[in-house]
From TrEMBL:
Keywords: Nucleotide-binding. GO terms for molecular function: GTP binding; GTPase activity. NCBIfam families: small_GTP (TIGR00231). The keyword Nucleotide-binding applies. It comes from Plakobranchus ocellatus. Belongs to the small GTPase superfamily. Rab family. The keyword Cell membrane does not apply. This is Uncharacterized protein.
Amino acid sequence: MSVAKRLKLCVIGDVGVGKTSLAERFMTGMFREKYTPTYQANHYHKHIQTPDGEVYIQIWDTSGTERFRSVGPHLLHNSHGAVLTYDVTCMPTFSSIEQYWLEWVRNIAPEDFRLILVGNKVDRTISRQVDEQVARRFSREHGLLYYETSAKSGENVELAFLEGVSLLGDVWEDSGILDDSVDLYKPKTVTGCIIRGCCLF
């Protein structure tokens, strides 16, 4: 047994952009077709292997509703970074990142807080509304890492989250003793994940 580093990430964005699906795809390797909105928050955690050692990663899958915004500051103050998520097939969800979520997070989060922008649902090519180059330009202007993902197919999901872990390498905290660690560099790993619904209200 060994001591792990601990990392906390929030997944943030409008309702229906696929935050839960992204978190579950990364943590379990699975995708659920049936949409179930997150009314409060889901808490996922898992031990992963990185080139710099073992990390105990906690992911908070948040609701995109107004109700979440009242408790969001507490989650952000206790996290190291966030994955800002929009749906590439729904322009209003990208506009929300531009007009609300990015500023909201930066006004609340600690100074060393890190952000990644993710455009989800790229498997729905015909329905696309947000041009990739527009999103990339926005990311460069605001100093964000940018990835396009599909929770359904798994495209770039693991890459986006593991880049987040790497980006936050200098702010990892000491955690407790590890057991049942899982190497997420091996594709389709589905064991060792604990998912909890957390009542925050």
